[in-house]
Write a structure and sequence with these properties.
Layout lengths: L1 E3 L13 E7 L12 H8 L3 E7 L12 E3 L7 E3 L1 H17 L13 E10 L2 H8 L3 E5 L8 H6 L3 E4 L9 H12 L10 H4 L18 E2 L2 E2 L9 H19 L1 H21 L1
Parallel strand pairs: 2-3, 2-7, 6-7, 6-8
Antiparallel strand pairs: 1-3, 4-5, 9-10
């Protein structure tokens, strides 16, 4: 009932590998970009594994139908609850049979349906998933999935943002990529992760490389000074200014968090 990526043979039960289960009507879309670059190298090295489940394999007719017209009328089709639930139950059961539990990451993988109406996916959620045993992602198509599946299987809805995609496959790849790069051993220099956008609540500061002058634009002198403390202060100020201008919502959250930290420090004194 499942189609594995060529490099997904390690399995979570063998050495605590973080595992992504993806339920989709387009299994050929995976691993896609996840098979390239850092994520692809980590997949090949067994740092994480990928299990792709073709939802159509659980259809019950010769046409492998998975959708039907929605009750109440309206355009579009809806994914049937019995078929999707069968795919979910099979995946969860396969995890249990494989002994996919590790003392450091106990519990089953959360079930997530990628939906525009879900909670906004962010860096904190990516870290939350990276700290767990993995995730099972449900890629919707058509007008969506029957609401009863979400209720009956305690599915968590997650959104990449306020826009609509043709299906959940693109979103699933984005979520997995964001999580996988946080796993130990994926990114060469762990310090890189600490300086990225959103890790500190701010957008990342600007970057420059050679040549020092290009089309009349010069690299800021401070970055050529060799004064590391001053460079650190400059980068912090740049990150703060960029966040204040481009993402007022993040900036307000950052300011509130800093005030809270200062208040706690004063209380301790």
């Amino acid at each position: 009932m499942t189609a594995k990526s060529p490099d997904s043979s390690s399995g979570y039960g063998r050495g605590g590998t973080w595992r992504a289960n993806v339920l989709t009507l387009l299994p050929e879309a995976f691993p896609g970009l996840l098979g390239l670059s850092l994520a692809g190298k980590a997949l090949k090295n067994g740092i994480w594994s990928l299990e792709v489940v073709d939802i159509r394999e659980f259809a019950r007719d010769k046409h492998r139908s998975v959708d039907d017209a929605g009750f109440g009328g309206g355009p579009g089709m809806v994914m049937r609850p019995d078929i999707l639930a069968a795919a979910i139950d099979h995946t969860v059961s396969a995890d249990r049979d494989a002994g996919c539990v590790d003392s450091a990451r106990e519990g089953e993988r959360p079930l997530i349906y990628l939906s525009p109406r879900g909670a906004r996916f962010d860096q904190a959620m990516a870290q939350e998933l990276a700290d767990g045993p993995g995730v099972t992602l449900i890629c919707g198509r058509f007008e969506g999935v029957d609401e009863r599946v979400i209720q009956a299987r305690a599915v968590r809805e997650v959104s990449l943002g306020d826009f609509v995609l043709s299906g959940g496959e693109t979103a699933a790849q984005a979520v997995v990529d964001a999580v996988v790069r946080l796993l130990p051993g994926v990114v060469g220099d762990p310090a890189t992760l600490q300086e990225e956008s959103f890790e500190s609540g701010l957008l990342e500061y600007p970057h420059y490389t050679r040549p020092q002058e290009w089309e009349g634009l010069r690299v800021p002198d401070i970055l050529l000074s060799g004064h590391h403390k001053e460079i650190e202060v400059w980068r912090q100020r740049q990150a703060e200014e960029l966040t204040r201008i481009r993402r007022p919502d993040l900036w307000q959250s950052y300011v509130d968090a800093q005030r809270k930290i200062k208040a706690q420090a004063q209380d301790e004194d």
